[in-house]
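Protein: SAM-dependent methyltransferase
Species: Nonomuraea helvata
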Amino acid sequence: MHQRAVRNLAKLDTTQARITRIFDAAAGGKNNFLVDKDMVRHFDQVTPALTTAARAVLQFLSRAVRHLAAAEGVDQFLIVGSGVPSGLPAGHRLHDIARRASAGPGPRVVYVESNPMVMTMAQATIEPFNDLVRVVDGDVREIDELLRDHVVQTFLDWDRPLAVLLMSTHCLDDDESAHFVVKRLRHAAPKGSFLGLLHTTFDGVPPELLPAIRSMLAMTLPRLAIRTREEVRALLDGLDLIEPGLVWVPQWRSGERDLACPTERDLACCDEPASSGNYGAVARIP
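Structure follows.
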């Protein structure tokens, strides 16, 4: 663990904004730099969509973990590319939610992160205080290597069902690679497992704002993967989506309020779910 942290600190770049840190900054988290906060401000000058989306994503993640632990009995989670959200209130991070919702003695959670700041901070602030959480260095674009990671293989029991939450679809800009990653995770997970998916879209962007947003993304995050609902649904072909299916993230089991949605803007997002800019779904793996 110490060697991974040192290696990732050596790769740390504070001069370029990164999508995971940008979302963390937009959601009010601490795992970001000034350049990431500046990016949020630039986007908010065009539209508050980024801040709205970041908070809606936190809501979705919180509700998905709670539902899987409480209603589906999941006690193992592999969370890929969530950024280990620091915008959630103390005691209400994803592994805390899983622990409180679980009927068992304690669910195990493995976060997989490729961002060196996020990973190093999480390893330093979570692992020493929680024996049931691990944070590993991994990139979903190198899915085979990720799944071979020693901690991933040994900390989780791959003979029992688990939940894989794939949050880092933003870096899968090639369709063939995206389908391969989802297929690889489906085949690796034991029967009876679950796959959660989050994906950014332009489907709900007002036409008058779309040119400005496309232009800003081309300059700042040129390889951000954007897909339509039909394209996201294609990634989930062959899976049994649990209710309510593939929807805007504020619509996913929206009756379950949580602490990630405290502001008037967030409540407005619940009334206008397309403003979240993200689809979400959780599916059973047959």
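Remarks: The longest helix spans residues 49-70.
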